[in-house]
Design brief:
Radius of gyration: 18 Å
Number of strands: 2
Structural class: mainly alpha
Order of helices and strands: HHHHEEHH
Number of domains: 1
CATH class: Mainly Alpha
CATH architecture: Orthogonal Bundle
Helix content: 55-70%
Distance between the termini: 19 Å
Strand order of the largest sheet: 1-2
Largest sheet: 2 strands, antiparallel
C-alpha cells in the first residue's frame, strides 16, 4: 500500500470520527460535559492516576488537570489519596459520572449508528472485521 494511501485512509477515518463527535456535541452539552471531558471521564476507570491518564490520552498533564478539575466540580469524578502510596491521588468516577458516561456513550453510539446506516449490513460486518483485525 502506498504511503499516501495510508495517509488518505487515516484522514478519512479522522473525518468520520470528527463528524460523529460534532454531531454528538449538543447532546454532550445537555449531559453537562464537553467532548474532551468525556474522553477523560471515559478512561478514568482504566487509568485512575492523572499522569497515567495524560499519557494514555496523549494530552498535556496541564490539560488533563484542567479537565479533571471540571469533572470534580461537576460531581462526576472524585479524587482520593491512594492508600498504597500516600503521595499519589487516585481518581474514581462517581455514580453520577458513570451515568453521564453511559448517556454520552449512548449518544456516540446513536450518531455512529446513523452514519453506519448509510451502508448495507454486509459492509458494516466487513468494517467491524477490519477494525477488529487492525486493533489486534
Amino acid at each position: 500500500m502506498p504511503a499516501d494511501d495510508g495517509a488518505l485512509l487515516w484522514k478519512l477515518n479522522q473525518r468520520l470520527l470528527t463528524r460523529v463527535l460534532n454531531a454528538a456535541e449538543p447532546q454532550f452539552e445537555l449531559h453537562g460535559i464537553e467532548t474532551k471531558e468525556f474522553f477523560v471521564l471515559d478512561e478514568i476507570d482504566e487509568s485512575p492516576y492523572p499522569a497515567e491518564l495524560a499519557a494514555k490520552l496523549m494530552l498535556p498533564k496541564a490539560s488533563v488537570t484542567m479537565y479533571l478539575r471540571n469533572l470534580v466540580e461537576k460531581g462526576l469524578v472524585e479524587r482520593e489519596i491512594d492508600p498504597d502510596d500516600l503521595r499519589r491521588h487516585r481518581l474514581t468516577t462517581t455514580a453520577k459520572g458513570r451515568a453521564v458516561r453511559a448517556q454520552a456513550l449512548e449518544t456516540l453510539a446513536a450518531e455512529f449508528s446513523a452514519m453506519m446506516g448509510r451502508i448495507d449490513e454486509g459492509d458494516r460486518g466487513e468494517l467491524r472485521r477490519i477494525l477488529l483485525a487492525l486493533l489486534k
